[in-house]
Amino acid sequence: MTIIYDSKATLGIVLAYQGTVWPRVLPFCCLTVGLTILVYHLKEQKILNITFPIDGHELLATMVAYLVVSRVSASYTRFWEARSLLSIALQAARQLSVQAAAFTNKDQSDGANLWRTMIKHRMTHLMYVMVQVIKVEDKTYQYVGTNQDLDKTMTSSGTEVSGAEAEYDLSESIPAISYALHKDIVRHKDFLQEPLFIHKELKLHQLLMDFENTVYEMSKFAATPYPFPTTQMTRIFLFVWMFSLPFSLVYSAKEPYTTPILMFFITYGFFGLEFVSIELDDPFGEDDNDLAIDDLSKVIVKGINDDLRSKAYVEKSLS
Length: 319
What we know:
Elements: H1 10-15, H2 22-44, H3 55-104, H4 110-135, H5 137-140, H6 174-186, H7 188-191, H8 198-223, H9 228-249, H10 258-281, H11 293-307, H12 311-318
């Protein structure tokens, strides 16, 4: 799901809990504050002075800030690219069903009704598999598959085997289903009383290819994570810098209150940004701020079914 909020409601945003990084970052804030208090206590009680000047940390802070901010920026860009591609894919899928219905709405024969039903079935199947491909990493690699003849999913009478998501074969690859859909589009001559003009047929093929290409682009988000070396360097520098910072701040501390409070917000800022990056890394995941691909795809599937309903529905809508 995606968190929807009013950007003008400052107090509501500050006090919100759902969708925030507080649950993940708060333990680290408490840990660094506790470490700061411990180091200060050891120093003041002259038990053990393990503090040191902050000069080295000032240099390291620049590198840590650069790595963290760069990672957040890259994750944010990645997130919005995923959102744009998802919009294009969903629009292409819906336009295919709209165009197929518009091109054949005057033909109310049994053959035309069967052809629309076939297109509806293939597209619904394609939508369900798309969700699996871009959400599940293991499924992503099934995107490249063999072209199979999927006509077995329709009975000889043309009745759908099932319109329920649970009964679609989600193990099929997108190229295989797309291949079958391209075949069904070409077979319009066998079902329609007046076959489609070539430019209309090509329009349907183009929309399907646009959908395929966009899904291919979206699959990279599951198959290609943020570069591991950069992530590793960021985490190492962040942890080393953050958990050694109390030793530097306490070095010049004159009283016991300011430094722990300062450490709390420094930890929240740096670790919070890192957890924001983690949240945005997988835009098609299950976190609160991920894209609501399940809900959006269901809306498109409903639209496809409405566009390519049965003969009786078409007659009623045209009357």
